[in-house]
């Protein structure tokens, strides 16, 4: 359960990102999940400048800060976490899968800490020197494919997945809603109507073993009726009854 | 815990995706997380054709299937789930937050079902007509911003986040690893060496209250020493001792 104050103690640090679209995508994911502090470490300013000038550049990009070194970008943070696709690099750091890593980050935020979450360049990830600034590493668990030696995610997608995991529990039940279920009394009225329809159509006579009251009730219960749908079904059944009675009256 | 057979019963269905880069990004996320069945519903074939001809187009794109209608694309599926950013659309379907939705999808896969996961166009999402093919909807819980009426994610990022959640539990502990911790005996040897260094430097005399044996041991324990680091620290402390003794010998 991260508060906005806690989200504001997370810095996303993009190190040597080359593609302005990826910087923009990272900023967009931050905006989507409520994070505000983007830091960019780049030898040359071109990609950041073009990301910033994009038409739909967000607030996050507008307030992003540039740093000349990883050390500078993480100086005020109490926990520095690097992201890696693992690949063949020898591991010199503890490595956690994202769900576990997010739990630990949540604990550090709860203690009042400030987090830096580092993402490396699209081609090479974080260098060993850049990784040496990290307390530990996290990896997004991915499928292993025989044909690919270094699995790696698109930068914007990796940022989105990591930030989603950080806010996942906080937002798991926010805003989703299931329409109200119909009340039992309505289900009962529907059952009665359906029973009448089955009698009128002759179904009850042909399939008497399907038609005891409890069976029909269970059939209706299994529809998982929403409150808003109940009157619609009532109307449909009443119309059927009206038509069936007319047909019967006509044939008699 | 989804098996590959279960992943192969999930179809990602992109409906009216306009940007070939987004189709490519969706395919890349599928590949990253082990999903193989991409279906594309488009009125006109241009975006799909250009996505397919991209240099790094994956296997997933190569084997993707085109459909003329949502009905056709989901015909063999037992559970059809639409994705939505909610916005102002009146909800005509049950709506679940992604973590809950993923659990239900997992149950349907365990029962042998086949899932269609629908994503709408970048601009408008899924239309009411397209949504009417869905059993229920899922939404990725996002931050609400006062300035934006319709929060929505980039299509490629939304696909990545949804698929990550589907495989999240399966892969939570795969492949991550924490380097072995140092054995207690090594920690004890380090404690002894450090104690000697503190004595040699005069620290023990100046701060006797910090220096009982248990305190120094706890200080070393809190380093959370990795097995591979223990000999390095031993070497550093031995070198210090050597230098300190030399200095002392010289000054006597």
Counted beta strands of chain A: 7
State the domain count of chain A: 2
Order of helices and strands of chain A: HEHEHHEHEEHEHEHHHHH
- CATH superfamily membership of the largest domain in chain A: SPOUT methyltransferase, trefoil knot domain
What's the mean pLDDT score of chain A? 84
State the secondary-structure class of chain A.
alpha/beta
Order of strands across the biggest sheet of chain A?
Answer: 3-2-1-6-4-7-5
Task: List unreliable stretches of 5+ residues of chain A.
Answer: 172-176
The biggest sheet of chain A amounts to: 7 strands, parallel
* Named CATH topology of the largest domain in chain A: Alpha/beta knot
Indicate the proportion of strand residues of chain A.
5-15%
In quaternary terms, these chains amount to homodimer
**What is the second-level CATH architecture of the largest domain in chain A?**
3-Layer(aba) Sandwich
Write down the Rg of chain A.
Answer: 30 Å
DSSP helix fraction of chain A: 40-55%
Secondary-structure topology with pairs:
The structure is a homodimer of 252-residue chains.
Chain A: H1 4-7, E1 10-15, H2 20-33, E2 37-41, H3 46-52, H4 59-62, E3 65-67, H5 70-74, E4 79-83, E5 95-97, H6 98-110, E6 115-119, H7 128-131, E7 136-139, H8 155-171, H9 184-201, H10 203-206, H11 213-221, H12 230-251
Parallel strand pairs in A: 1-2, 1-6, 2-3, 4-6, 4-7, 5-7
Helix pairs in contact in A: 2-3, 2-8, 9-11, 9-12
């Amino acid at each position: 359960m991260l508060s906005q104050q806690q989200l504001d103690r997370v810095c996303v640090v993009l190190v040597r990102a080359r593609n302005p679209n990826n910087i923009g995508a990272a900023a967009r994911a931050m905006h989507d999940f409520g994070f505000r502090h983007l830091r960019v470490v780049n030898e040359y300013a071109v990609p950041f400048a073009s990301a910033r000038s994009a038409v739909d550049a967000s607030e996050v990009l507008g307030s992003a800060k540039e740093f000349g070194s990883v050390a500078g970008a993480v100086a005020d943070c109490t926990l520095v976490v690097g992201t890696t696709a693992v690949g063949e690099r020898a591991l010199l750091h503890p490595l956690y899968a994202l769900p576990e890593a997010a739990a630990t980050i949540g604990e550090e935020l709860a203690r009042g800490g400030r987090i830096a979450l580092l993402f490396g360049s699209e081609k090479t990830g974080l260098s060993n020197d850049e990784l040496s600034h990290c307390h530990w590493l996290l990896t997004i668990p991915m499928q292993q494919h025989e044909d690919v030696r270094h699995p790696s995610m698109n930068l914007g997608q990796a940022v989105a997945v990591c930030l989603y995991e950080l806010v996942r529990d906080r937002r798991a039940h926010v805003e989703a809603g299931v329409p109200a279920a119909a009340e039992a009394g309505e289900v009962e009225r529907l059952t009665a109507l359906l029973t009448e329809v089955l009698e009128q159509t002759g179904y009850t006579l042909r399939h008497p073993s399907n038609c005891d009251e409890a069976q029909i009730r269970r059939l209706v219960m299994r529809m998982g009726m929403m409150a808003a749908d109940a009157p619609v079904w009532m109307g449909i059944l009443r119309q059927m009854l009206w038509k069936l009675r007319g047909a019967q009256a006509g044939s008699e």
